Amino acid sequence: MAERLEVRKTYKLYMGGQFVRSESGRSYAAEGFNVPRASRKDLRDSVRAARAAFPGWSARTAMNRGQILYRIAEMLEGRRAQFLSLLGGGRPAGRQVDAAIATWVWYAGLTDKVAQLAGTVNPVAGPYFNFTIPEPTGVVGMVAPEEPPLLGLVARLAPALCGGNAVVALASEPLPLAALTLAEVLATGDLPPGVVNLLSGRRAELLPWLASHMDVNALDAGACTDPELAAVEEAAAGNLKRVVRQREVQPSPQAVTALMEFKTVWHPIGV
């Protein structure tokens, strides 16, 4: 009997809850595989999917969002060996996977505490209650750092989802396989379609359009180089888009509130 040929995996973009090839049919070589090279149309389709998913995701209770983030941690734990292999094995890979799992768990526990940590009752001179309440910003564009490819993305993705935002993320250009495999974890969890959209491709091609897109409300550009950041801020200024420069990978409430808006509400004091 002839020896069976190895079936090599086909990596795809993750958009609107589905795994799709780039509409342009292009690909590029990365980590020994042909990886889809997203086009500007793929980016626009991802933003459209995120915008459609945002109302339902932001309307869920904080507790329910926490349950879904915890489910992602469970699914990632179950595929730990696969991610260890993708990241090259050894202790550094193990530490990165474990930190990514812990990050999902940490933000899962924070979802129903954000309002208490970031909200407040303001003292006012009048017969009113005055509350400041955090609310999700909307559709967040995100740039994953080149390294670490898994933890770098998770450290930005989890706080955005914790706050109730929808996300369009650009995977690490030289090391995209961990991000595209993470999409399989998201798809098999309870995350609604379109809440997270993951694209691989050339950052120089996609980033300017992500920064200038009128339906993207904020951009996490902490992984951008200084020249990229200057170009991003100039493009974002055209529609007053918030640009966040988060570089830390350690979980923190500030990573959540950096991608949220704060609404002040007045209520008369009842007699």
Task: Describe the structure in your own words.
It is a single chain. With 271 residues, the protein is an alpha/beta fold. Helix content is 45%, strand content 20%. It has one domain (39-268): Aldehyde Dehydrogenase, Chain A, domain 1 (3-Layer(aba) Sandwich). The chain has helices at 40-59, 62-78, 80-86, 90-110, 114-118, 151-162, 177-188, 203-212, 226-237, 253-257; strands at 13-15, 18-20, 27-30, 33-36, 120-122, 128-136, 139-143, 166-170, 196-199, 218-220, 242-244, 260-268. Helix 8 (203-212) runs parallel beside helix 9 (226-237). The radius of gyration is 20 Å and the shape is globular. The termini are far apart. The model has no long low-confidence stretch (mean pLDDT 91).
Offer a concise description of the structure.
The protein is α/β, with parallel strands linked by helices and 271 residues long. The protein contains ten helices and twelve strands. A hairpin with a 5-residue loop joins strand 5 and strand 6 (128-136).
Properties at a glance:
single chain, 271 residues, alpha/beta, Aldehyde Dehydrogenase, Chain A, domain 1, five-stranded parallel beta sheet, globular
